[in-house]
Amino acid sequence: MESQELLEPFVRMLEAACPPAVVRAIEAGESAAPLWQEIAQSGFLDALVAEEHGGPGLALADIEPLIAALGAHAVPLPVAETMVARALLAQAGVAAPDGPIVLVTAVAQPVPCGLVAEHALVATGEALMLCSIAEMSPAPTGVTHSLAARLSGIPQGPTLPRPTATLRAIAAVLRACLIAGAAARLCDLTTAYAAERVQFGKPIGRQQSLQQMLAIMAEDMIACRIAAQVGAAHGIDVPMPVAATAKITTSSAAPRIAATAHAVHGAIGISAEYDLQLLTRRLHGWRVADGSESYWAQLLGTARLAGAETSVDWLRHSVFA
Amino acid sequence: MFDTLTLAALPVEDEALRPAIRTFIARHVAALPLDRRARSWQGFSADFSRALGEAGFLGLTLPKAYGGQGKGPFARFVVVEELLSAGAPVAAHWIADRQSAPLLLNFGTEAQRHKHIPAICRGKQLFCIGMSEPGSGSDLASVRTRADRTDKGWVVNGQKIWTTNAMHSDYMIALVRTSGTSADRQAGLSQLIVDLKAPGVTVRPIVDLTGDAHFAEVFFENVELGEDALIGKEGEGWKQVVAELAFERSGPERIYSSVVLLDAWVRHMQVARRNTAAALVGRLTTELATLRAMSIACTARLVAGESPVVEASIVKDRGTGFEQELPVVIADDLAAHPDEPVSEELYRTLMYVTHIAPSFSLRGGTREILRGIIARGMGLR
Prior knowledge:
The structure holds two protein chains of two kinds. Chain A has helices at residues 2-17, 20-27, 33-41, 60-72, 79-91, 167-196, 208-232, 240-265, 276-288, 293-305, 311-318; strands at 101-104, 119-123, 127-132, 139-140, 149-150, 159-161, 198-199, 202-203. By secondary structure, chain A is an alpha+beta fold. Chain A folds into two domains: 2-161, Acyl-CoA dehydrogenase/oxidase, N-terminal domain (Butyryl-Coa Dehydrogenase, subunit A, domain 1), CATH 1.10.540.10; 167-318, Butyryl-CoA Dehydrogenase, subunit A, domain 3 (Up-down Bundle), CATH 1.20.140.10. Chain A is globular. By secondary structure, chain B is an alpha+beta fold. A four-stranded mixed beta sheet of chain B has the order 1-4-5-8, with helices on one face. In chain B, strands 2-3-7-6 form a four-stranded antiparallel beta sheet, with no helix packed on it. The longest helix of chain B has 27 residues, at 309-335. At the A-B interface, helix 6, helix 7, helix 8, helix 10 and helix 11 of A face helix 5, helix 9, helix 10, helix 11 and helix 13 of B.
């Protein structure tokens, strides 16, 4: 109920401030500052800040639909990451800077939204460090339209204690929620297109082969939604198996969902001017950010093999507890 | 799309059933060999089902007035999850408890309810479902078995096939044509309770590729039934069957059919002190986690009083795909280590699941039919 009350104004704000034209402009190098202003003014950035630190103290599960909406609207800024960073900073008594913050869980590979962030919350092993992104020399990847950045250098700034969960586990759940939101939007777009596009004298959605493909897409979409909700159910202190469930399910499904969306749309779907690519490119980016399905599968499988529980007991105690 | 299917949690009072059913399982199931337990909901034991009924684990969703436990679908989820993950032989009561009793509760007369539901709850009346016929598989509306009115009730002629456990059952709930012809499709179909001991009924078991005989052919030759054989309204059989199938497709049984094998394989690697398949274990375990959450979400729709036909199809299609993948990847892993001994029990279990796995996406509606139902739910047909 509460989530729904939050979601409606948030989605209205995104629809007004972040239509596809704005996404494209920012991806083409225009300033993201006006969009950030709108989002910051909406007051949602401190949603996760605890009441004792002056925030509304919402749980990650409460704002999971909002993060999904960010994914569905292809928002070209690290909004969910900033929400988590601001909650962690408040918890540690460190003043949060203005501007978008990315969560940096590794520097060997590009970080999504690194080019539009102003700050980074960096996992340095035992601690977290807040720094200006400029200190990490963000460099474009050379991939057209991508806002990911290569980061390097040793950051300097205030340190805060590591949360109970790893930063990567929290970031993985955010990616899962973003994927789930984009997957839902892609499912809607693709189903609508299949119902409209006429070939061989009837809508292509009347073909059984397409119906079967789209049914699988819907199954993947629902699996992503539920797995993201599993991930968000534990708040920002995410246990590894919970993050792994969310990220493995969504990262495995992301390429299939993107592939079906493009297959049904045909050539127009891969044109730059059509909106589909704003979502499918992001799906692939979030899939590989903060650990792919195999990364988390290795971690979870190793933990599972170390214990004697049956599958159901292991899940009940490690994922659903 | 399908917006109501969201994460739900098992209520504490239903979770509270878990210790008791685990104790029961430890006493009745733990000693069974692995390949017997792998049969799970194809494993038939009338004694086990009666003991389960006596212990109060049947009819969980049914009202106390009819001998049930007066709980809800979440309670059934907890008990069924424990039974299936242990590989309990639940086939004897399975259909009566899951489908027949709820069907009779929804559509039956007071007399039918009192005659059957309390006995089902004690594991003493076993039911089968007569749907498929030689010419009617996925195209169920084309059934040709007929029931014609007589002055005393009905006379049935025709044949059913692939009827699970017909040879062990006391009654069949049969979908039959009571008016028109198969060209009339869904119209003119009704559901009848057939006493399988009635004159004119012949049941012939069919042996499957694993050597088990869990399904059968059933012939009806001028089988006379009373007026009270009709369930619900004449001509409403199709609607009733669709509601019934939502029960069949939405439970945890559609994700756990191979879980005994999964657990045995994990134990095998632990004994062999081998970590090479950790990523595979991780992927399979999280897929089961997501399926479990999806199945609980679907159960929550049942609790809300809905008939989640499309949602149940989503869970069943994905769940059976997972169940079928397990023996394939586990066989590959075991045989990728040709110098590592595999116990006879694990080998037999693996091969049993491998051979029976195609049935997972046939029974209760084929994969292709389910995807058609989902596509209809998406507005595509």
